[in-house]
Amino acid sequence: MPLGRLAGWLMLAPALALLFGVFLLPIGWFLAGSLTDFASFAEFWEEAQDVLFSGTILRVLLNTNGIGAAVTLLVLVIGYPVSYALSRAKGLVFTAILLCIVLPYFTSTIVRTYAWMVLLGRTGLINQILLGLGLIDAPLELMYNRTGVIIGMTYVLLPYMVLTLFAAMKAVDPRLLQAAEGMGASPATVFFRVFMPLTLHGVIAGVLITFILAIGFFVTPALMGGPDDIMIAMLIEREVELTQNWPAAAMMTIVLLVVTLLLYAVYSRFADREAPR
Amino acid sequence: MSGSVDLDAVTKRYGSETVVAGVSLVIPEGEFFTLLGPSGSGKTTTLSMLAGFVVPDEGRVLLGGQDMTRVPPRGRGLGMVFQNYAIFPHLNVAENVAFPLTVKGASKAEIKARVAEALAMVKLTGFETRYARQLSGGQQQRVALARAIVGHPKVVLMDEPLGALDKNLRYHMQVEIKEIQQRLGMTVIYVTHDQEEALTMSDRIAIMNHGRIAQMGPPREVYENPESSFVASFLGEANLVKVRRDGETVRGPGGAPLVAARGALSANEGLVFVRPEKVKVAAGTAELRPNHLPGQVLHASFLGNIMRYAVSAADGATFFCDVANGAGTEIHRAGDAVTLSWRAEDSRLLGS
Amino acid sequence: MSVTPSPFRLHRRLLLGAALATPALHAGRAQTQGEVIVRTPGGSYDDVMRRFVYDPFTAETGIRVTVVAATAAKLIAMFRANNVELDLIDTGDAQLLTLERLGALAPIAYDRWRWSKPEDITRQVRNPHRVGNFIYASVLAYNTETFRGDNHPKSWADFWDAGKFAGPRMLADMASGSANLEFALLADGVPRDQLYPLDVDRALRVMTRIRPQIRRFWDTGALAAQMLSDREVVLGSIWNGRLQTVIDSNAPLAYTWNEHMIQVQSLGIFKDARNVEGAQRLADFMLQPQIQAQYAKALVFGPTNERAFESYTPEEAARTPGGENSRRTGFYQDVAWWHENRDRVSRTWSRWLLR
């Protein structure tokens, strides 16, 4: 057993070294370098209060969590049936659904987001169709506001939810469903009393991973949002790039990192737990 | 509705393969009926058609005299025990057992009483709040059983319910299942590939092979009087030795004359069937009498309560003989010359 | 053409991670006197510069020119990590000012210039550690189908008059480098020569009046151009180079030179660069009148070498930022003021946006 463990660690070593080298070390350097800029603790405390307890960051955190929650909910509502279809599908249909979900990942986020602009803009396809059909009189504002951010992020994050749920659904023993049916359950009852509870850990894992990813989003809200759709990553970027106030950026980064790690701790509890047997 | 079960010439095909070919069964209420056969013989598919999971391509399924061929499982009111137990991992023991009642919308009080009764019957009182992962294989089996009987169904289907248990536990469960079946007077359709289990528990057995029923009848009849070499060799140990017709006489190895109480040869050649425990082994050379053959002991295996001999006879034929290790029984050794004999009533001629 | 005085912000963001993650991208490369590495805004800007500047420079001196992308943050990170990977920085004047204040830049070797004469360089852009290599402008652009004939906004006061000139609008976000506080103050009646120091609170009060009409505050030149060409907005501020590209592709857009803001792109040289000498020579080469006239015309930017105008036709001069016409109707952005106040303004701006 110790030998097996050692072998496990050895196999992990390259990945760990890479993570350490390109992630932990630079982020440590950045945080340490930024936070040691202060002449005194008092100065640090003053800045910290300004950064962390100003109305701005609270509003941004509220935005971030609100957008994250809305997107996660939407992704779940759309993703669950899609995953279900995927878990039942075979052969060509399976491949087709999977491709539809994964294919967008072969293009860059920026390209995908620009594609949304073409669809959702004031003179975009959707508005033109709706105007052409006479369903609306004036173009709908589908972009450069909260709606645009949520549509764009939902699209980008859907695969994470679908693949997480798919794994959970595939792990459900079909014989349990058949058994339930045999014991007198209607298809709806089988779904709600057996299938759903058995995939609940997948739902929780999917919700957490989606939310974790959502709150760190940058490109989509930056491109598709309106003036006040500022998320925390955008605020961090602004401090890094624009004002070069790295201490402030470092503090916000720590806030985001702590929130993410906390959520991740919850996530790993559900993700590591095997599907109930 | 009574607990009778009928299959009327049901056939099921998957592509070009016929899995079940025109199987007909008439099972009266209260019978313990076993479908026995090797894997791929069609017994599980037959059970699935009874349950309603599989719709037959031809034929009818009748429960209590009513045509249920196209009724989905939930409309059939059957109890079921599944091969893997199919205990819901997200529900505790009580909730699992209550499941068939819950989906029917039974009242809380009724559910509580029935669940307690069913758990008492399978001796699992006190395990209500456990989950499957906290139970042993035998306990899970009992949960599955309790869940199958909780609604007092007239008919219970069991698909290899004891397949995963070790031998000792299996024996105990066989007895308990049989007891419960008799106490509740339910019809049980039982699928197994374990012949001993089938013989112990069943009122009647249907032996299936290649999607057909090879033979059907009470255990003893099927065991003692197999109608084919397949049934003879599938159910228990059998000596099946080549014979040929010589005018009115049937001759076995070395031309020894044989007489069998049952069966006949349809052609000039065939087989004689006799169970190992029906063959007598005596020291010394044979007299020339029907059903007496000279031989030499190849092996003598001590199996505790029995001695098993492998004896070579003329023409390369080998007989297995089980002799009870009773008081004063003569023991033979490898190389000893012996005479094998059996009664005409204990043997049968088979066409091939 | 995707030239922006401030580099393509999206790339900057994506590269930020890379900047922090790969502090030694070029560390292994053997550095010779035969190569100058230049930070540029990228895109088609590089093509134009390659053709009119880098290749002729290589032909003249034998020194190769390699272009790389780097964000402001990456440049600072390089300097702080004591691992400067490039020689010449071609970026917004404000960003160079930040580097200059950090002590990262070598003095421009005006005294050793061979091709350009320091005294020909416009006074405002000739600084000890940075020298302007072109001029661009933020202008008021509008849709000519929405505002036909002469009935178009002609000043920032018009822009603020949503009753007279209705339709969705855009202005620059702080994330583009600076917010359009100057335009707000102009609209409110502050004279061009009395803008600085900016009265931020007053500017934001004026901004509040027009905010319901603002569809989006743009943060990249690409977004600004797209919003105009896609008719997401019918008027707004935009960098003239970006706008010209869209106009050249037949979009129904036009702009007024009135009250535009003149901004400067500059060159700076890392004092710890591996090839300071080569970078000095490239800066010198780039700024000579004929060379500058060629790339500035191609990019619709203004030259910083006054003598470059000698090869301009009157029409070309009229539409050139920093030209005579431009200086009469526009004003220079005060990068020093922005440098001193960017941090404070940025936070005030964020608070105002989220109000």
Automatic annotation (TrEMBL), chain A:
InterPro entries the UniProt entry points to: MetI-like (IPR000515), MetI-like_sf (IPR035906)
Transmembrane parts of this sequence: 7-31, 51-79, 91-108, 114-136, 148-169, 203-226, 246-267
ABC transmembrane type-1 domain boundaries: 61-267
This protein's UniProt keywords: Cell membrane, Membrane, Transmembrane, Transmembrane helix, Transport
Compartments in which it is found: Cell membrane
Superkingdom of the organism of origin: Bacteria
Membrane topology (UniProt): Multi-pass membrane protein
PANTHER family documented for this protein: ABC TRANSPORTER PERMEASE PROTEIN (PTHR42929:SF5), INNER MEMBRANE ABC TRANSPORTER PERMEASE PROTEIN YDCU-RELATED-RELATED (PTHR42929)
Family: Belongs to the binding-protein-dependent transport system permease family. CysTW subfamily.
Name of the protein in question: ABC transporter permease
Source organism: Roseococcus pinisoli
UniProtKB/TrEMBL annotation, chain C:
Keywords from the UniProt entry: Periplasm, Signal, Transport
Classification via Gene3D superfamilies: Periplasmic binding protein-like II (3.40.190.10)
Domain of life the protein comes from: Bacteria
DNA damage in keyword set: no
Keyword GTP-binding: no
Xref: CDD domains: PBP2_polyamine_RpCGA009
Subcellular location: Periplasm
Stored InterPro entries: SBP
Pfam families: SBP_bac_8
Subcellular location, principal: periplasm
Similarity remark: Belongs to the bacterial solute-binding protein 1 family.
Name of the molecule in the record: ABC transporter substrate-binding protein
Source organism per UniProt: Roseococcus pinisoli
